[in-house]
Amino acid sequence: VNRFDPLELSRLMRLGGPIVAASLLHLTVNATDIVMSGRYGSSDLAGVALATAIVGPINALLWGTLSGITPIVAQRFGAGAGAASSYIARQGVWIGIALSGVAMVLIANGHRLIGLIAAGNSVDATIVSVGYLQSVMWGLPGFALYSVLRSTSEGLGRTKPAVVAAVVMVVLNAALNYVFIFGRLGAPEMGGVGCGVATAIVNWSAAATMAIVVRWQNFLPPDFFRRKLILDLKQMAEITRVGFPIGLATFVEWGVFALVAICLSRFGEAAVAAHSIATNINGLTFMVPHALGMAAAIRVGHQVGQRDYAGAKTTGDTVLIVTLVFAAAMAVLLLGVREPLAALYTPAPDVQFIATRVFVFVALYQFIDNTQVTALGTLRGYKDTRGPMGLVMVAYWLVALPVALSLGFGWWTGNPMGI
To answer: What band does 411 get if pLDDT is binned at 50, 70 and 90?
Structure first.
């Protein structure tokens, strides 16, 4: 029997509220890129969307793997060994350096993938995609450092520093987009490529902000900043064992979305742009249950560290019930305001026409997607990540994608069937 506990809900909200805010602000960064590049030109919007479809899965693998730090730190903290967090974080830095190096190589060669499959896009859109990739990859090491610091602080139950970093990201990204896209303050007019330059700078700024806040609040032991980065292969193996299945599962999910966006490029720029808008809207609503799942992972990690398994089950039940209520509210809202939403993103009538119809499927998708992400978050609190990884791979690649392709790229029909 599922048990709803109002007291546990209040604890989840205290943890999850800042995570929701930070996650929504992160999506605002992506939405700003889409809106501002779309205002510059439809080819730039399509180019940014196509490049993001390549960068997104790689970022997801990087972030997901490093987020394995969170349940490890949470369980140590629950067991009264929170002082070990800085040591765990330092080993995470080594993993982040290695992963970001590999990611830079992959993104540097992303133009080969675009050249092979972006046949439906104009030459201008393809040029924007390649320029975006060549610019954004330089921010990946900064993104890795940000991910390590955020995952560590959240494992300790400190979720507010990520909000501070996210606010800096939103403000700085909008300002830099304005400068580099439209060529202001003496900068070259780069169009959609300017979004990539802005994102690279923003990623390093986020890492610096997290480091400053963590050091200033002094909740992470100061030896993180003072001691040398000495390799501990055993600790790195634990982080990888917990985190890599999370990263791979997230990569698989993002990868399917990316593949669909790339395949849709054969139907023209309007189809790519509409899919990008629908994905962004779904991402905005998804961030709330995603954040609740992250909060559940922290709470369950603390409870497992304390050996309070009954409390961990109550946390899982509570977050699931709240998620279903939220999904119902979002579905009604999306159905009611789909036309104004499409108009907010783009003035192009053909893109609006496609997007408003896709929003119907996005509304129904809320119940399925939101439920699975909170369940996954709860399992991560137990450091149970391998089983969910297998389920995600089967759901997306063996069910959702084949159904979508059989329906003529009917992604927003096939995806719910897989999940």
So the answer is: low
Question: Are the C-beta atoms of residues 284 and 32 closer than 8 Å to each other?
Answer: no
- Angle 106-109-110 from CA coordinates, rounded to 5°: 85
Is pLDDT of 122 > 70?
no
The CA distances from residue 321 to 77, 120, 377, 391, in Å, are: 27, 43, 14, 22
What is the model's pLDDT at position 1? Answer: 52
Buried b (16+ CB within 10 A) or exposed e, 198-232: bbbbbbbbbbebbbebbeeeebbbeebeeeeeeee
Contacts for 20 with CB less than 8 Å, ≥ 6 apart: 287, 288, 291, 292
* 3-class DSSP assignment, residue 68: coil
DSSP string for 298-363: HHHHHHHHTT-HHHHHHHHHHHHHHHHHHHHHHHHHHHHSHHHHHHHH---HHHHHHHHHHHHHHH
| Closest C-alpha among 254, 245, 234, 206 to residue 65 | 245
* Predicted confidence band of residue 265 (pLDDT cuts 50, 70, 90): low
Tokens of 418: 């897989």
Distance of CA 168 to the CA centre of its chain: 17
pLDDT tens digit string along 59-107?
989 999 999 999 999 888 888 776 777 888 889 999 999 999 999 998 8
Q: Beta-carbon neighbour count of residue 125 at 10 Å?
A: 28
- Comparing C-alpha atoms, which of 365, 416, 381, 413 is closest to residue 395? 416
DSSP 8-state secondary structure symbol assigned to residue 394: I
